[in-house]
Amino acid sequence: MIWRMATVTETKKSRVSEAKVRPGGQGARMRDVAHAAGVSLMTVSRALREPQKLSEETRKAVLDAVQKIGYVPNSVAANLASNRSTVVGQIVPSIQNSLYADTVKGTADVLRTAGMHLLIADSGYSMQEEEALIGAFLSQRVGGLILHNTDHTPKALQMIERAGVPVIETGDVPRDPIDMVVSYSNADAAKAMTLHLASRGFKRIGFVSLDTRTNRRARERQRGYLAGLKSLGRAKDPLLMMEVPGGLTSGSHAMVDMMQRAPDVDAIFFAGDVLAIGALFEAQRRGWKVPGRIAIAGFDDLDILQHTVPRLTCLRLPRLEIGRRSAEALLGRMRGDDAPVLLDLGFEVIQREST
Amino acid sequence: MIWRMATVTETKKSRVSEAKVRPGGQGARMRDVAHAAGVSLMTVSRALREPQKLSEETRKAVLDAVQKIGYVPNSVAANLASNRSTVVGQIVPSIQNSLYADTVKGTADVLRTAGMHLLIADSGYSMQEEEALIGAFLSQRVGGLILHNTDHTPKALQMIERAGVPVIETGDVPRDPIDMVVSYSNADAAKAMTLHLASRGFKRIGFVSLDTRTNRRARERQRGYLAGLKSLGRAKDPLLMMEVPGGLTSGSHAMVDMMQRAPDVDAIFFAGDVLAIGALFEAQRRGWKVPGRIAIAGFDDLDILQHTVPRLTCLRLPRLEIGRRSAEALLGRMRGDDAPVLLDLGFEVIQREST
DNA sequence: CTGTTAGCGCATTCAA
DNA sequence: TTGAATGCGCTAACAG
Fold it and tell me: Which residue ranges does the record assign to the HTH lacI-type domain (chains A, B) (predicted)?
């Protein structure tokens, strides 16, 4: 049963639109504050940015005037005049994915404490879109870029180089970084999980990932899985490998398909988003024992994984920390530290009941 | 068992830092393009913004020069000169919460097609923080604001009024809007769910929400629940009402507590975030039948709710649509439409197996 | 259709 | 410690 409610109202009443006399929006400027405080424009500018360089008397007079007038500085003009920016741009594959939200949160928190702000966009997993966004961000003269991606178009690379802004790449450890890197290694993590599953006694370990052709992170994870098999002395088996779209439904189908194609599979490592959760729910629906009938491991430690029945084995990646460290590295650069940073923040294998 | 890997490397190698001759970052300016194309500065400006006003010949010459030089316009200067902005600011309670991510996504998508961008911040559910962020956004001279909140500090209201920027409030339908509203009614939605549960035959319907003292949306939902009871001719029972923090664990505790305090409760309506999912998992762990032993309903239609066993009854709110419509209303205002908008986008009650 | 003049609001640099 | 001159890179308004 579905109830529905929706109404649309057009009204003429609104506080702002009635109060808005001068369209375009503005307010007091610095000179207005200067007049009110009986000082020069420069003194106001200083009172706001380097208050310690003024006598206590004038400083107070200026700040009082600022309060009284309700002056809000124009940081666009400040940016233009000083050639410095208080904004950093971050591009993630998808805003809706809570994994990236963690990274964004870490970045935003650190930037805020430094009085800076974050311009966010999502590329929809597309390099072309990323290129367009990088152009837009550079046009806004952001002070730095954080890219959750390590593949870029030639034009994007060229724009970044010409702009000379500091850049952080996250999401993987690239061979040839643009500038700074704050990340973990997808290949190392996938290999570690593969070895872990083997150590738990599983003989036929399946691997399900997103499309490795278009997604480097998926490709690296697959590489790690195969490296794990190799170091175990096991052969690669196409029946045990699948590439599927993201999503809960996709995970459930992948599990069922693989168990049909390779009935002796005893564990499946889902190296993408929420695939493992979808598979677990499917097992619940079918009454399959996890790990008795099939063991399930995931890649990211989503909050929910430790609440399901059974709880899910997975990797834990330092998403929030990546965001924080990225922001810190960027701030360092803007302050003039010129030591490029390559941070591999590592990962953990979290063993739970599902394996 | 936990594996761990983490390495930290400081290196001096980096493409950009070596290529970066002129620190501070810049590139070609418009006059460089003008020289290269043999035209005036204004012609370049027009070629980029109103190409149809130029002869095909000059336009091509300019755009070729732009390509060749790799010119990236400085929209900070453009903004200052034109007193227009290509950026909109959005403040949500939490970036990490995927509910808000949907709204953000809708906003960002619509803005992008209009060549605009989104500055995002989270207030951490605090009005004070919201005030600070509004100040920062206005300082950046954003062209509009989208606030997922309907309670604001007096100073915030004052700043907004003085700036004269268009504002959208989302997240509830306020009695006294600042400007435009694009939302749904929390009270109506909660009442509808309460009546729905009664129509399914449940006699003792519990209500669990977030803190109603600090969170207006929680307060409105509680009001809707009580209105529902009243129209059913049922009395308010404190034993059937709880306020708890957010989170899966919190939901599971709430369910257990309420069933201990009021053993005859036959359905619980969880009006916050992921509480219902936490409760369902707890029921699975304890082997309680849902809805046999206890029925469970949630508020937001998270993707996962239709995959759990059993699937969860909930409300469906038009999060993405709220983002889209907000952006559209804002764009309309910037273009000069001055009809304030009050949109109630409604909701649906989704009946599934858990009730 | 194209160019010229003026100035957006602030910070830098110098002088007082 | 404070102030005056100059310009950041671009667009509006006008002239040609």
Answer: 28-82
State whether the beta carbon of B53 lies below 7 angstroms from any atom of strand D.
Answer: no
Q: ∠ at Cα B283 (B282, B287), nearest 5°?
A: 120
Alpha helices for chain B (secondary structure H): 15-19, 30-37, 41-49, 56-69, 75-82, 98-113, 127-139, 154-163, 186-199, 216-231, 248-261, 275-286, 319-335
Q: Given this model, what pLDDT does residue B154 score? A: 96
- What is the rounded CA–CA span in Å between residue B296 and residue B247? 16
SS (H, E, C) B86-131: CEEEEEECCCCCHHHHHHHHHHHHHHHHCCCEEEEEECCCCHHHHH
Q: What is the mean pLDDT of residues B159-178?
A: 94
pLDDT, tens digit, 9 for 90 and up, residues A56-104: 899 999 999 999 999 999 999 999 999 999 999 999 999 888 889 999 9
Q: Do domains A2-73 and A83-184+320-347 have the same CATH topology?
A: no
Q: Is A315 exposed, middle or buried (0-12, 13-18, 19+ CB in 10 A)?
A: buried
For residue A49, say whether its CB is under 7 Å from any atom of strand D: no
Q: Is the predicted pLDDT of residue B166 greater than 70, yes or no?
A: yes
Provide the pLDDT for residue B27.
81
Tokens of A272: 């993408």
pLDDT at position A69, please?
A: 93
pLDDT at B26: 59
> Which nucleotides in chain C have some atom under 7 angstroms from a protein Cβ?
1-5, 7-13
Is the CB of B39 less than 7 A from some atom of nucleic acid strand C?
yes
**Per mean pLDDT, which range of A198-202, A235-239, B8-12, B153-157 is the poorest?**
B8-12
A interface test, pick of B4, B9, B14, B354 with most A CB neighbours within 10 Å: B14
Q: What is the mean pLDDT of residues B229-243?
A: 98
Residues 260-319 of chain B whose Cβ lies under 8 A from any Cβ of chain A: 274, 277-278, 281, 284-285, 303-304, 307-309
Asked if pLDDT for residue B7 goes beyond 50, the answer is no
Å separating the CA of residue A77 from the C1' of nucleotide C12: 13
> What average pLDDT does the structure give for chain A?
91
Q: Which of A122, A274, A149, A319 is nearest to A217 (CA)?
A: A149
- The shortest CB-CB distance from B104 to any of A24, A95, A119 is to A95
Homologous superfamily (CATH) for B186-316: Response regulator (3.40.50.2300)
Domain-by-domain residue ranges, chain B?
2-73, 83-184+320-347, 186-316
Superfamily classification of domain A83-184+320-347: Response regulator (3.40.50.2300)
Asked whether residue B159 carries a pLDDT value surpassing 60, the answer given is: yes
pLDDT digits (tens, 9 = 90+) for A109-148: 999 999 899 988 989 999 999 999 999 999 999 999 999 9
- Residue B200 distance to chain A (closest CA, Å): 10
Give me the residue from B13, B96, B309 closest to A281, CB to CB: B309
- CATH superfamily ID and name for A2-73: lambda repressor-like DNA-binding domains (1.10.260.40)
Confidence (pLDDT) at A26: 59
